[in-house]
Design brief:
Blueprint (H helix, E strand, L loop, with lengths): L1 E2 H11 L4 E4 L6 H6 L7 E4 L3 H15 L3 E6 H7 L1 H9 L4 E7 L15 H6 L4 E4 L3 H16 L5 E7 H5 L1 E3 L15 H12 L3 E6 L6 H14 L2 E4 L6 E3 L7 E2 L4 H8 L2 E7 L23 E6 L5 H11 L24 H11 L4 E6 L7 H5 L5 E4 L9 H11 L5 E6 H4 L5 H8 L3 E7 L4 H9 L7 H5 L10 H7 L3 E5 L2 H13 L4 E6 L6 H13 L5 H11 L2
Parallel strand pairs: 2-3, 2-4, 4-5, 5-7, 6-7, 9-10, 9-13, 10-12, 13-14, 15-16, 15-17, 17-18, 18-20, 19-20
Antiparallel strand pairs: 1-8, 11-16
Helix pairs in contact: 1-7, 3-5, 3-15, 9-12, 10-12, 13-21, 18-22
Length: about 550
């Protein structure tokens, strides 16, 4: 007879969930022991819960199926919340298993007792505390169904210790999921009419609409109708590179996003939300759809994106239209003064076929989309929920999901420190990840925001909160202390040598790129005024400036 933990694990692997990212404690020990009875389950230890949750997110984005986490009580769940928030915003399926005290122990309000369900509901649309060993298998099957969607969700199953150790656990089969519906005929007809009418049209794409198959259909529709293809600011996963239609991401800065959307008469959402400003700013609008623009939703995240696009392609008679595809084109080998832009150029010059880019580079990665547009086919994962500390854990999960692909993680120095423990897991699991840390010794993005929000009177004390110089961070020492080979680059030539070595040598590597902030000095001082001026400039001039600031 199985105990609860054994039945839970068997339910998971029978449903195809074969990876669990763990940071366990005392209440989860029976689950830990049960791992040896279920050889199909790969257990990956993380030294911080935010690494475990971020890795589960990255795994699901690339595997197209959930991973599980194993977290310790409410405090452990709390430590993992930021990356569960990113997963929720990216509509990524994650099965979150959180241990709890034995049911008879709860009344004593022991030191680690907390309201786990309340904590979980901040990031998890589905939460359940399993009340008995006999019910655990059914609860697990329901959790799997809920997290699989569509859309994908974070589902949190709370596992009391006595439910885990109790005898009489029964694995439960997960029922087949019904196929999601395609867009209604009436919706397809309305969108087709909008695309075939006068004015400028554009698609805003997210989720499954940014996969290669969907993009090729969209490319035919765009070529037939003249529509432009945009992606959300931070897509969950976008397939791009030579041989695919080009998709322009909406800019992070709302002023630049408004320039991109100016003049659009018909905006069609496909697995995406209407664009809004990332934050509120004094005197500036939050909703970025132009006032005279008609908004349409072809397919919601709950619908079948591919089938909906096929219907639309037929409706506009684009099935035989050749899409405009991105030509194979790499930038020249970078030379000269070492900057963040030179790192991005080096990536475009050297990016291997079928690589996975995990982009959390903030200001340092502004030029990355431009320099990699014509590179060999690759995937990009981005910071869907804006909670920093996602990049390195996402890279762990992506590398485990796709062990035959090179993973390249780009992170700023500040964001890398949130989940630096991910390096240890990379070393332990021998993952083929190249981590590139832009060390500009500041929270550079916040120096930009300090000026954009109009915060008056910022002096030395304010600027010190955004400064990482005192003391300077040594990522080479940090990396080598956790078992990952590391090199520091202070020149373009040093970076190229380090990157080429990491590309041809399997296993984890870290490159610390010592670069100045991309936006600093005069550029930083004039940026708010420049952004303010965009709305009053002729559209061609505004767009030229936008391309200069953030291509």
């Amino acid at each position: 007879m199985s105990n609860g933990a054994q039945a839970l694990l068997k339910t998971l692997v029978d449903a195809g969930i074969t990876t669990c990212f763990t940071n366990p404690g005392t209440s989860e020990m029976h689950f830990v022991a049960a791992l040896d009875t279920v050889p199909e389950m790969r257990a990956v230890l993380a030294l911080f819960e935010g690494v475990a949750t971020g890795a589960a997110d990255g795994y699901a984005r690339m595997a197209d199926k959930p991973a599980a986490t194993l977290l310790h009580l409410g405090c452990g769940l709390g430590n993992g919340l930021a990356n569960l928030h990113n997963a929720r915003k990216g509509r990524v399926p994650v099965l979150n298993i959180v241990g709890d005290h034995a049911t008879q122990h709860v009344k004593y309000d022991a030191q680690l007792q907390s309201d786990i369900e309340t904590v979980a509901r901040n990031v998890s649309p589905w939460v359940r505390t399993s009340q008995s060993t006999a019910a655990l298998g059914r609860d697990a099957a329901e959790a799997i169904t809920q997290c699989m969607g569509p859309p994908g969700n974070v589902a949190t199953l709370i596992l009391p210790a006595d439910v885990s150790w109790g005898e009489g656990g029964v694995p439960q089969a997960v029922p087949p999921r019904p196929a999601p519906p395609a867009a209604d005929d009436a919706v397809v007809a309305a969108v087709a009419q909008a695309l075939q009418g006068p004015g400028k049209k554009a698609f805003l794409l997210g989720g499954r609409a940014l996969r290669a198959e969907a993009l090729m259909v969209l490319g035919r529709i765009a070529a037939k109708t003249g529509a432009k293809l945009f992606a959300e600011v931070f897509p969950t996963r976008i397939e791009r590179g030579a041989g695919l239609p080009h998709v322009e991401r909406i800019a992070y800065l709302a002023e630049l996003a408004s320039v991109q959307l100016t003049g659009i008469d018909q905006l069609i959402l496909v697995d995406a939300k209407a664009p809004v400003s990332f934050f509120a700013y004094p005197g500036k609008k939050s909703y970025l759809v132009p006032e005279d623009c008609q908004l349409h939703e072809l397919a919601a995240p709950t619908q079948d994106v591919a089938a909906s696009l096929d219907k639309l392609c037929t409706a506009v008679e684009a099935g035989q239209t050749a899409p405009v595809l991105q030509a194979a084109r790499r930038p020249a080998r970078p030379r000269g003064k070492f900057t963040a832009d030179k790192v991005c150029k080096a990536l475009g010059h050297l990016l291997p076929e079928n690589a996975i880019l995990v982009d959390e580079a903030q200001t340092s990665g502004i030029m990355l989309p431009m320099f990699t547009a014509g590179a060999p086919r690759h995937d990009v994962l981005t910071l869907t929920g804006g909670a920093i500390g996602q990049g390195l854990p996402n890279a762990v999960g992506a590398a485990i999901a796709c062990p035959d692909r090179k993973v390249i993680a780009l992170a700023g120095d500040g964001s890398a420190m949130y989940t630096i423990q991910a390096l240890w897991t990379m070393a332990r699991e021998k993952l083929d990840v190249v981590s590139i840390i832009f060390n500009n010794r500041s929270y550079a993005i916040l120096n930009v925001e300090l000026r954009r929000v109009g915060a008056a009177g910022a002096g030395d004390k304010a600027r010190a909160q955004l400064d990482l110089k005192h003391p300077p961070l040594d990522f080479v020492a940090l990396s080598e202390g956790m078992g990952v080979r590391a090199r520091r680059a202070t020149t373009t030539e040093e970076f190229l040598a380090a990157f080429e070595h990491a590309l041809r040598t399997p296993g984890p590597h870290l490159i610390e790129a010592i670069v100045p902030p991309t936006l600093a000095g005069l550029k930083l001082r004039i940026l708010p005024s420049l952004l303010e001026s965009l709305a009053n400039l002729p559209v061609p001039v505004a767009r030229a400036l936008k391309r200069k600031i953030a291509p």
